[in-house]
Amino acid sequence: FKPExxxxxxxxxxxxxxxxxxxxxxxxxxxCDIHKENRRKGYxxxxxxxxxxxxxxxxxxxxxxKVFNKNIPAxxxxxxxxxxxxxxxxxxxxxxxxxxxxxxxx
Length: 106
Known about the structure:
The protein has helices at 43-57, 72-81; strands at 4-10, 13-21, 27-34, 62-68, 83-91, 94-101. The termini are far apart. It is α+β, with helices and mostly antiparallel strands. It is globular, with a radius of gyration of 14 Å.
């Protein structure tokens, strides 16, 4: 499976991107990067919220991601979105956490 990339635009301005990878048909990894000057404006929250909703509508049952443990703002965002940590690992002297989205019934 090839990763897919999506540009995040606000008022015709590119503010970042989202990507999907490791697609099994039922689980998928997602990620997002917002350009430094556009962070802390809610763009990542909105992009993740829209992407997560679309993935569930398309039949995915597990949505997960990896994050550097020292990236506290990202971890707080993921927790706000409904992700929980399920494990961690060290690669090249960097500690990562794996987080999975917990879908709340509406």
